[in-house]
From TrEMBL, chain A:
Name by which UniProt lists this protein: Cytochrome (Ubi)quinol oxidase subunit III
Keywords: Cell membrane, Membrane, Transmembrane, Transmembrane helix
Subcellular locations according to the entry: Cell membrane
Organism the protein comes from: Oceanobacillus piezotolerans
Location of the Heme-copper oxidase subunit III family profile domain: 1-205
Gene3D superfamilies, per database record: Cytochrome c oxidase, subunit III, four-helix bundle
Spans through the membrane: 28-49, 69-89, 101-119, 139-164, 184-204
Membrane-protein topology: Multi-pass membrane protein
Automatic annotation (TrEMBL), chain B:
Signal peptide span: none
Enzyme class, UniProt record, top EC level: oxidoreductase
Keywords from the named record: Cell membrane, Membrane, Oxidoreductase, Transmembrane, Transmembrane helix
GO molecular function: oxidoreductase activity
Gene Ontology CC entries for this record: plasma membrane
Protein's recorded name: Cytochrome c oxidase subunit IVB
Keyword Cell membrane: yes
Membrane topology, as annotated: Multi-pass membrane protein
Transmembrane segments annotated in the record for this chain: 26-44, 50-70, 82-105
Localization of this protein: Cell membrane
EC number: 1.9.3.1
Primary residence: membrane
A Pfam family assignment: COX4_pro
Amino acid sequence: MSQEHTLDPNNLPKDPAKSTLEGKHKFLGLWFFLGGETVLFSCFFATYLALKNSTAGGPTSQDLFGLELVFIMTILLLTSSLTSVYAIYHMKNYDFKKMQLWFGITALLGLAFLGFEIYEFYHYITDYGFTFRSSAFGSAFYTLVGFHGGHVVFGLSWLIALMVRNARRGITLKNASKFNTFSLYWHFIDVVWVFIFTVVYLMGMVS
Amino acid sequence: MTENTSMSKLNSYQNHKSKEEMKHQVITFALMIIFTLIAFYAVAVDMDKIFVIPLILILAIVQVGFQFYYFMHMKDKGHELVALLIFGGIWVAAVAILTFTTIIWW
C-alpha cells in the first residue's frame, strides 16, 4: 500500500474523503456525472410535462394518484438522506461502526421506499390497467418515475456492495472517498424525487 | 508532550465545528420536512390552482437548494467547479423544459 494511504492516528486528515489525489478526482468525477444526470432527468421531466394530458381515453393523473402513498415515500427518502449525512459525519470522526450503522439504516429506508414504489406500480397496472403502453402519459410517467426507481436500485446495490466489501477493513483513506461519493449520489436521488413528488404527483392532483 | 496537547486542542476544535455543522444539518432537515408538509397540505385542501402550483414549485426549489448547499456541502470552500458543473446541468435542464412545454402543445 502506498504511503498516502497509511493512517497516522496522531495526525488524521480532517476530511478523509478528499485527503488523497484519487479521492479528489472521485469527488469531482461524481459531480461531473451529477451534472449529466441533471440533463438526463430534465429531458424526462420535459417529456412528461409535454405529454401528461395525452391520456388517449385511459386513466388520468387525477384518477390514479393518491396523496398518502406519495407522502410516505417522500418521508422515507428524505429521512434516508439525513441518515446518510449522519453516516458521513461519523466517517469524518473515524467511527466506522457508527458509520456502518447509519448507512445500514439508509439502506433499509431505501428498500422500504422501493417496496412502496413496486406496490404503487402494481396497483396502477392491476386495478386501473394503466401500463407503459396505455397512453403517451403512461409512457412518460413510467419512464420518469421508473428511471428514478432504477437509480434507487442502483444506489442500494452500490451501498450494500461498499458495506460488505469494507466490513472488515474499517475506514481507510482509500475507501472513505467511495463512501462519500455514494452519499452524494444518494442525496441527488432525493433531489430528483423532490421534483417528482412536486411536478408529477402534487401538480397532477391539482385540478 | 506539548505537541500532543496542541493536537488534542485542534481535535476538540474540529469536533466542536463538526458538531455545530451537524446541528445545521438537522435544522435543514426539519425545514425540508416542514416544506414538504406545506406542499402536501396546500394540495390536500384544494386551494386555487393559480396559487398552489407556483407555491409548491418554489417550495421544491428551496428544498433542493438546502439539499445541495447543506447536505451535499456546496456551501463549503472548494466547490467552485462543482457549482459550474451543476449549474451548467441546470441551465440545459431549463432550456429543455422550456422547449418541450412551449413548442409541443398537442
